[in-house]
Design goal:
Layout lengths: L1 H5 L2 H8 L2 E4 L35 E5 L4 E5 L5 H8 L14
Length: 98
């Protein structure tokens, strides 16, 4: 609760409406600097809702304080190995701090 009280409006917006980025649908331009602004381009964020989550998807949730990977149980084994170096069946579930 202190984080909300002490945070700026801009910081607290992420807590109310976090970004949900579909990692499995990255456009070619994602991760590259924008030629006009120089900022790194991200995939378009989705509105947060269960109807947006696909069983085969890989998502990054950003609430401004933590980044959470959500990996659908039907995600491509190739994506799992590319991102984490392990197949889905060998990944540790839950909150993992490194």
């Amino acid at each position: 609760m202190n984080a909300v009280k002490c945070g700026s409006i801009d910081d607290n917006v992420y807590l109310i409406a976090p970004y949900l980025l579909p990692i499995h649908l990255l456009p070619e331009s994602a991760g590259q600097p924008d030629p006009k602004t120089g900022k790194i381009m991200l995939p378009p964020a989705l509105n947060l809702g269960s109807d947006r989550i696909e069983r085969t998807g890989v998502y990054l949730l950003d609430d401004g304080r933590e980044l959470v990977f959500y990996l659908g149980s039907g995600a491509s084994p190739d994506i799992c190995v590319q991102l984490f170096g392990k197949p889905y069946s060998e990944l540790q579930g839950g909150k993992v701090l490194t």
